[in-house]
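As a warm-up, study this chain.
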Amino acid sequence: MDFTVTDVIEDGLLFTESDLSNSNFEGVNLAPKLQYSKTFENKAYLIGDLTQSSENDLKIRDELFGVDGNIPFLLLIFSAEVDGNDLTVNYGFRNNFGLANLENANFKNADLRFVDFYSASLVNADLSGADLTNAILLGADLEGAILDNAILSNANLKCKNHPKCLG
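Now compare it with the structure written out below.
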């Protein structure tokens, strides 16, 4: 499948368990494009020590956005700020390739910031020059994947079968 012919790939798409082997995503922007802001009255207590952390993000997601459906897998908290007793949350939606078959896929020079590849098969995928900043590669199989000049800042590299993986 050739995704390079699309003008825009929206935020918050689920490609979970999809077979996208041999697909072409070269140069495609899969990073979040929109950011939303919402103020929740009397919810400042969710930020216990007034600093944002991944633990606080989980509390915010569970309590304010619920755990039903696919929202927890797609929701991305950019920031949360306390204003008196209220909590203002800036958020967006990530694209999710969890458990997808992406063998031999071409992601060369793609913008993959914040994309979730949880336990996906990226065997022999070309990720050269891709921006994987803050991407989730937890459990992903990167055997034979090409990561030349890929940006891996703050990416979860608990993947497998590649020298860049942390285990």
